[in-house]
Automatic annotation (TrEMBL):
Coiled-coil features, chain-numbered ranges: none
Protein's name in the database: TM2 domain-containing protein
Main location: membrane
TM2 domain: residues covered: 2-51
Length: 118
């Protein structure tokens, strides 16, 4: 697990060579710092990184650089629901009874559907 203080100290003392970026697992940036270390631009950026690391709180640092060490929370109370809402049997029987009274279905069809529901 990466430490904020260690990263800040590496940025201050060895930042011109990108040591803090290698430490944080950002090897691409570390190589870029090494390639341009002779220009002193990486040293200036490392000084800014030093200040940023010191002003960053531990939670922000951990979320940015130690994310792999923290597992995602597991939700144990998830209950999948059916995408189609289930009608209760009494409501469906009432609907079928209304259709039978209107003459849209026969008494035999009503009884058959009611038997399937119950």
């Amino acid at each position: 697990m990466k430490d904020k203080t260690t990263a800040a100290l590496m940025a201050f003392f060895l930042g011109g060579f990108g040591a803090h970026r290698f430490y944080l697992g950002q090897t691409g940036l570390g190589v870029l710092y090494l390639l341009f270390c002779w220009t002193l631009i990486p040293a200036f950026i490392a000084l800014i990184d030093f200040i940023v690391f010191l002003s960053m709180n531990k939670e922000s640092f951990d979320m940015k650089y130690n994310r792999v060490y923290f597992s995602q929370p597991i939700i144990h109370n998830y209950i999948p629901t059916s995408p189609i809402p289930q009608k209760d049997a009494a409501t469906e029987i009432e609907r079928l009874h209304g259709l039978m009274e209107k003459g849209m279905i026969t008494k035999a069809e009503f009884e058959d559907a009611k038997r399937k529901l119950l």
